[in-house]
Amino acid sequence: MKPPRNGLAAIAPMLWLAVFFVFPFLLVAKLSLSDTALSMPPYVPRIDWQQGLAGLQAVFAGLDNETYARLAQDRLYLDAYLSSLRLAGIGTGLLLLIGYPVAYGISRCPPTLRQALVMAVILPFWTSFLIRIYAWIAILKPAGVLNTALHGLGLPGVDILNTETAVLLGLVYAYLPFMVLPLYAVLERQDQRLIEAAQDLGSTPLSAFWRITFPLSLPGAVAGALLCFIPMAGEFVIPDLLGGSETLMLGRVIWTEFFSNRDWPAASAVAIVLLATLVIPILLFERQQAKVLS
Amino acid sequence: MKRGPSAFNIASVVLGLVFLYLPIVILVAYSFNASRLVTVWGGFSTRWYVALFQDEQMLDAVWVTLRVGLMSATLATVLGTLAAVALVHGGFRGRTLFAGSLYATLVMPEVILGLSLLLLFVSVGLPRGFWTVTLSHTTLTLCYATVVVQARLRGFDRRLEEAAQDLGCPPWKAFALVTLPVIAPAVAAAWMLAFTLSLDDLVIASFTSGPGATTLPMRLYSQVRLGVDPKINAVSTILIGLVATGVIAVYLVQLRTARNPS
Fold it and tell me: What is the spatial distance between Cα B240 and Cα A124, in angstroms, rounded to a whole number?
């Protein structure tokens, strides 16, 4: 018999999420339908809790989709939207290409070494994200570490700081642990006898990999891809520090609208569009999570 | 028989780790550089560390960050442990929705999370500062704490707790005396993770912080925008050293407890 405590433990975290996660999204949605104003906070209409229901009705009457219409007419937002998805997509592809051999290599090592290697992959994730991106500025800048090394070897220098290449490099660097770990988790659990059976039946190691190991590792690849793609699409720090002024991504647009332009409704509308785009990947990620945890 | 790693396997692991660690090594090395220039090695020096400890603004930011981290990590660990217990131990109404919104916080772009939390604080008229950042960081780290505790709790034999209850122990006491000691390493790891994530966060803090509550990442960010500064390397090195020591210590403790479970 199960004690009735199960649900009780959920009450506090449930309330927390309702207040600090779910409800705020309704506010973002509401604000995206509001208008900018020269006041603090810089938008109208504002909810007057003292007026009760009448106040809420007044707010609903004041909402319109003007902000969305404004954004739709401006080419800049469409460009930022497309380049966010493009960079996150290319980044995810690169991460799969780089992360897979690393995860596979770790899974082939002896068990004692494996633990230490997994630890080594996780450790950078614990050190500051901002600092790790900052480190790349010193490497990539025109008179930076990379170019000094290239000149030392007699090679021509490269000028990639403030370009999309630098942004992609930063994305791959920062998200690599998130790709390697889910891949490693499925590869490590794989039954080695399957490979042995295939080889006993005359399969070459390469074809055994492509026909057994690789298909069986796909759930890990999907989990890793989603875990990287979703936050990368809304990334702010990496495009801001490593990308030039022409590298527009939605996370950066939201930041600029909010902090520089003080246009809160526009920031909210962009956030809603980004969220609407990410809903399907997020739901896929959750289904995957539920499968892994059950 | 299991084949060992091939040359290709070894090469990919080594290259992967070099890629992950080289920038960090360079960063640490240049924090001891006497020269201000990144590419010129002016000899070993600790002058940037001295300069760092004279930077009042930086020290204030460190203090704010530590307070926010301690407070939010503790809140997130308590809530996360409760959430993990609820999720592992069973079916209740709204479980799917609860798990769904919890995992959504894990992948949600920080810009969206920060903006939505700020709008919440503005709409209820809560002045921005220490507490708003703390509440926001608790929300950010809650799911991470849950995942860590949940992983350990799934390996726990629940019949132990039920046996205690059959012998007349009240449920909360059975949890505190039987379950909690077993999952304690995971709870400690969850706290550590929540604390580091809070220490690290720039985006959410920027949205939800107010005057007088500038966190270290916010201060670093405004410095970084002005260009490369060896003082940033120095503060980064200290942070990396602290975190690496903590994480490796936790790892070794877990390794020891795994070897002799008594």
Answer: 9
Provide the chain B residues 202-241 that lie in CB contact (below 8 A) with chain A. Answer: 202-203, 206-207, 217, 220-221, 224-225, 228, 232, 236, 239-240
Distance, CA of B190 to CA of B141 (rounded, Å): 9
Contact between B241 and B180 under an 8 Å Cβ cutoff? The reply is: no
DSSP3 helix / strand / coil % (chain A, rounded to 5): 80, 0, 20
Distance (Å) from the C-alpha of residue A52 to the closest C-alpha of chain B? 14
SS3 A44: strand
Is B115 in Cβ contact with A254 (below 8 Å)? Answer: yes
CB distance B206 to B193 below 8 Å: no
Name every chain B residue with its beta carbon within 8 A of the beta carbon of A131.
27, 220, 232, 236, 239-240
pLDDT 10s per residue in chain A (294 long)? 444 455 678 889 999 999 999 999 999 999 999 888 777 778 877 777 777 777 777 777 778 888 898 888 888 899 999 999 999 999 999 999 999 999 999 999 998 899 889 989 988 887 788 888 988 988 898 888 888 888 888 888 888 889 999 999 999 999 999 999 999 999 998 888 888 888 889 888 888 889 989 999 999 999 999 999 999 999 999 999 999 888 889 999 999 999 998 899 999 999 999 999 999 998 898 888 777 766
Q: Please tell me which of the candidates A23, A130, A275 has its beta carbon nearest to residue B202.
A: A130
Q: Determine, for residues B103 and A289 on separate chains, whether the beta-carbon distance falls below 8 Å.
A: yes
Q: Which residues pair with B44 in a beta bridge?
A: B33
CB contact under 8 A, B111 and A28: no
Contact A271 B142 (CB under 8 A): no
d(CA B227, CA B248): 32
Question: With contacts defined as CB-CB under 8 Å, which chain B residues touch A27?
Answer: 116, 119-120, 123
Which two three-digit tokens encode residue A153? 């070897």
Tell me whether B131 touches chain A (CB under 8 Å): no
Helices A145-152 and A129-140 sit at what angle, rounded to 10 degrees?
40
Whether B29 contacts chain A with CB within 8 A: no
- Alpha-carbon dihedral sign for residues B105, B110, B116, B122: positive
Residue with tokens 């949940």, as numbered in its chain: B150
